């Protein structure tokens, strides 16, 4: 599962058997990496180093709180991204994770007996989310 925006990867989730879990992992990683970028731009260090310096009393906790607040406010850059899956969504719940984060489109294999549920999720979204079926899975099992 990928979230892509402006030609860049925003979040990646891999190695899970369920689509919801992988979509959530990709969101989680997007938030971590976004905070990392903000921290590096602001302080010249990774977010984990900032947290360590705060724990060691070398830096003010307000620095971390500011990074966290900006990350939440920007929703890690996920709004406006495209959610891409190497498989189909067997239920709508995986797509709902991306829709909740503000994706504008979903690209997936299609071919699930419940494709109509994912189509319905995209149509119910406000604003609506575009979806395209590739007709092709990128893995075999």
Could you say how many structural domains there are in total? 1
Number of helical runs?
5
Tell me the CATH topology.
Cytidine Deaminase, domain 2
> Radius of gyration, rounded?
17 Å
- As a percent range, the share of strand residues is 5-15%
Q: Biggest sheet, in brief? A: 5 strands, mixed
Q: How many β strands by DSSP?
A: 5
Task: Provide the spatial order of strands within the biggest beta sheet.
Answer: 2-1-3-4-5
CATH superfamily membership: AICAR transformylase, duplication domain
State the low-pLDDT regions, or none.
none
CATH domain class? Alpha Beta
Helical content stands at 40-55%
Distance between the termini: 17 Å
Query: Helix/strand/pairing class, anyone?
Result: alpha/beta
The CATH architecture term is 3-Layer(aba) Sandwich
Helix-strand string: EEHHHEHEHE
Summed over residues and divided by their number, the pLDDT gives a mean of: 93
Shape: elongated
